[in-house]
Amino acid sequence: MRRSLVVLTLFAVAAPLAAQDPGMTVRPFDQKHGGSPNVHMVAHVVTHPGNWKASDIEIEEERPYVYVSGFTNNDVQIYDIANPAKPKLLLDWSIENPELHRGIGAMDGKYFKLKGRYYYVQSFQFGQGGPDHDLGAIVFDVTGLPDTSRIREVGRIRTPEVPGGFHNIFMYKHSSGRVLLFATQESLPDTPYGLTIFDMEHFLAGDSDQGLVGHIPLPEPRGAPRGYHDAYVAFHRPSGQDRFYGGGPEMTYLGGNFVYDVTDPTNPKLLATVRAFPGQQAGGHTFVATPDGRYAITEMHSLAHAPLRFYDLKPALDGDQAEIRVPIAEWTANWKRSAHNVEIRWPYAFISGYTSGLQVLDIRDPGNPRRVAYYDTYPVDEKGYDALDTAFGMFGVDVRNADGLIVGSDLYSGFWAFRMEGFDGWNGHDWGVENVSSVQDWDRGPTQAREAERGGRR
Fold first, then answer.
1. What is the pTM of this model?
2. What are phi and psi of 198, to 5 degrees?
């Protein structure tokens, strides 16, 4: 099944690349053209024809499956990586009548486990002028994999009061034992909140409110009618709090990054604020925290000349400082570039760096991050296009804690899998920190896992 592509206003700056200007040279995908000797390509798959191949990527922890969101292709691909060197395409599912839909399309995907069954949530962003402009996500039961005939759609989350879909989603095993979906909605002209929370057990049960739990506000004045861009949620054991980390709105001096206590998800409480400082490219985008919750890495928004910034949240969390404005460190692979997404597995930060490809930082000294590994996934030799292709290249990154397999999705080149020498799995306790990352312990949750995990990896 082939689908027509939609030209995105969001990535209009990348249009010259899509046309493959004669000044550009496209290199073979199967050759390493740039990277450190300690990173090895395990596999590469060109997921789609044309120039828009993938947005985000998700890898399961316990089973050998990878999900690649198809972006404007309006689909999701599922790969079996039982042999990581030979990914096997199991399914290429597309929404009905894909050619009629407008907008970004299939944006982000996350899996979760509930009552012994596995589910996958695919977010969508569709605009006016086509169907499903109120569709946020579709939920699939994928327990039967690798038998794709047993996959079934179990429901669709729609928000007609806030059309435009979900830009990013985060699945979280809450300290209460609930499985919660945190969904960001970027265009919010008439609402005071920036994110919506759903209880997936209630959603699967068919509740009339779709399992709606509540919303996370944006501190006013927000500066623009936009919501959060990204979402990250983690348990903070010293305080016993579930903490939400959100960046937004983008591209406004009143934007920034905010930490909320969501232990009671119906009553979020603001804990810390990171604002832009004068002269800085403003707004919030990616915002993730170290396992102890003290330090945060931000990518303020994905345009050129925007480095990753490192912040010490302690003064704000302790109540000694109303807002954090000055970073303790900045880092970029190339000052003409920006990064996109970040996964922390202490002491490493794995970064999808757009045209800089995969970047890995050692952040054990957050005030002095240093690069320890990288791999170029962007197969274009550039000649003067530094400012035009910043929103192209490696879009998403994920890490499987069980064995350290790194996966990435590149807008231009598709699905990649890597190994980094000396990194064969991750458990925070092996590094003397809490075992906290984007990977969830679906069976035990954060309040039960600590004692069971003492002494090594699970």
1. 0.91
2. -125, 140
